[in-house]
Specification:
Layout (H helix, E strand, L loop, with lengths): L3 E2 L5 H18 L7 H8 L1 E2 L3 H7 L2 H27 L4 E5 L6 H5 L5 E6 L1 H10 L6 E5 L19 E5 L8 H14 L4 E6 L2 H7 L3 H4 L14 H4 L7 E8 L13 H13 L3 E7 L5
Parallel strand pairs: 1-2, 3-4, 3-6, 4-5, 6-7
Antiparallel strand pairs: 7-9, 8-9
Length: 284
């Protein structure tokens, strides 16, 4: 099998960090975090995982992997819930990277759209090519012309999700994007992860620093998204949140004392949440 080469210290390498985290968690906790897709994709890569493997063997490294796996699970649950009432909906992954959520939630009737920057989609097309009902779209999320590439009808619906993406956006950018989405995709739903400023500052020491973000004051974070985002658009029906680490499934004793402690800290002190925004329908 031909393997796709990943260069060190490039945007390509940043794509495999959450992917490899999911794989590590699936290896360590197979009864709780079964993720065959992460394993399959890692096997398709020409990349030396030994350094990241050593990092993931530390307590902090393993918790970071668990965090990525929980986010993948949480957002998938939200998409699945929407598909129960909108089985033919558009399922739109904003800033998709190498995420395989659509494969996990696909009910045989929905249509998947994976959106990211051109260099990312180029890699994705090699590793996760399009199918009849799943499309890879190269775009900048700030350029709202991507709206026209989503086959949308309110009767079918649309659910949008983003994993670890909006921390890279300025708050004013997101306000404009979310308001425009609510107007265009009536009756749709948007779900994504968020944290407060303390969490955002912690990120500047890791992946935010890699893209040159050192001052997070203008970038998106939230201590109480249900309150703070409510007036971002008159076309929001509701804004609610749910605990990221323990809201969808508990980090229980099977995961060890350290991971349980860290999960509680994330939920309480840095407000690691899944934010859920329902857009008003045509007649609301």
């Amino acid at each position: 099998m031909k393997k796709y080469h990943i260069e060190k210290n490039t945007v390509q390498e940043t794509l495999i960090i959450p992917l490899y985290g999911r794989k590590i968690c699936a290896d360590r906790y197979p009864d709780m975090l079964n993720d065959g897709e992460a394993q399959r994709i890692c096997e398709m890569l020409d990349y030396d995982f030994s350094e990241k493997g050593r990092l993931m063997e530390t307590k902090a490294g393993l918790f970071g992997a668990l965090e990525a796996a929980q986010r993948y699970y949480d957002l998938g649950c939200e998409v699945e819930n929407y598909l129960k009432t909108h089985p033919e909906a558009a399922v739109v992954n904003l800033g998709c990277g190498l995420d395989t959520t659509f494969t996990r939630v696909d009910n045989g009737r929905s249509t998947g759209y994976n959106l990211d920057l051109p260099d990312v989609i180029e890699i994705r097309n090699e590793l996760l090519p399009e199918s009849e009902r799943e499309h890879n779209i190269a775009c900048d999320l700030n350029d709202l012309s991507w709206f026209e590439k989503i086959d949308f009808d309110e009767s079918r619906g649309a659910v949008f999700f983003a994993a670890g993406v909006f921390y890279y956006f300025r708050t004013q950018q997101l306000k404009a994007i979310f308001d425009a989405m609510a107007k265009r995709f009536k009756g749709g739903k948007l779900v994504f992860d968020s944290c407060n400023k303390v969490g955002a500052k912690m990120m500047t020491k890791t992946w935010l620093k890699e893209v040159g973000i050192t001052d997070v004051s203008a970038y998106f974070s939230s201590s109480d998204a249900a309150v703070e985002l409510a007036d971002w658009s008159s076309n929001f029906e509701s804004v609610t949140t749910k605990s990221y680490m323990n809201g969808y499934r508990k980090i229980d004793r099977r995961f060890g004392v350290f991971n349980r402690f860290m999960a509680g800290m994330c939920d309480r002190l840095i407000k690691l949440d899944i934010v859920r925004i329902n857009f008003k329908g045509e007649n609301q």
